[in-house]
Amino acid sequence: MADPRVSRFCRQCLQLEPAPEFPSGELLRDEEVQEALYERLFAAKETTLPQRYQLRILKELVARIESSIVDWDKHGISNNLMSAMSRLLSLSLPPETAAAQERYSVTYYLSPLETEPAASDPHITLLESRFLISASGTTGLRTWEAALHLGQYLCSNPSLVKGKRVLELGSGTGYLAVLCAKYLGSEHVIASDGSDEVVRMLPDSCILNGLEGTERVSVMELNWGQDLGGSDGEVSQGLADLDTVLGADITYDASAIPPLVATLSELARLSPGISILIAATERNRTTFESFLDACRQRGFAVSYEDFAVPSKAMQNGPFYNDASPIHICKLSV
Q: Running DSSP on this structure, what letter comes out for residue 134?
């Protein structure tokens, strides 16, 4: 499947994009393209796509192929695609409300890390609940745009984490922790979150990405504002001697900003010279400004990293919204 438009469509589907960009009818009616799409997206033993998502994409795909065919003696619709659709239509699919409770495999391709010719496509696979907020109220059951954008920035500036001891705050699905540990050469990464439910799920991310049993990544529960030292005065679980702290989409809740900034200040005290990078999608400017003000009050110097969100048309994985600004802030003491 050499055509980049077909590959891009598959990557969007594997990321469960709600509106993937279908290739042209001229491409879709090609027999080899149809078979490649079947093998990558719909082959029963291979696919990881949710059944409802498969069926929706497959229905539109077949309709587009059908409408593109002028000469039925020359072109047709793949028997494998038609069989896959018949199989899905025959299933008793769970209600949408029940399906929303499930975790599904989501694959993010790391286009900045690809080389030519690529031996394999660098990617991160995670289990996510796209439409569910956990019982504790956390939004950490899916990967958000700011994490994807900060990941792109780190792929373009790997020296920020290569050979470094890294702490990710509010890890959620663990996208950044996996990226740093698996692809960017971090010495060790601590994936932390304040939700015990999310922390219990983080090891799944390590297993899915071949990081189980390694020394490169560990998981811990970390509630912002808590004392980072134990009763004997020792710092908890290696939180001293860190080189880099990462956080993405962790500034949206105004009530969480004071304990978050207190934790950042404590980490800076424990590891002088530490580099802190925080990425935030600008949903509420007032809340974001209150985070920056709180940082300055704690003695941090705040600067913006110059790294624009690429347009959707230029993205080749991962894919994320280009309509809202995403800021990457560097904090230093």
A: -
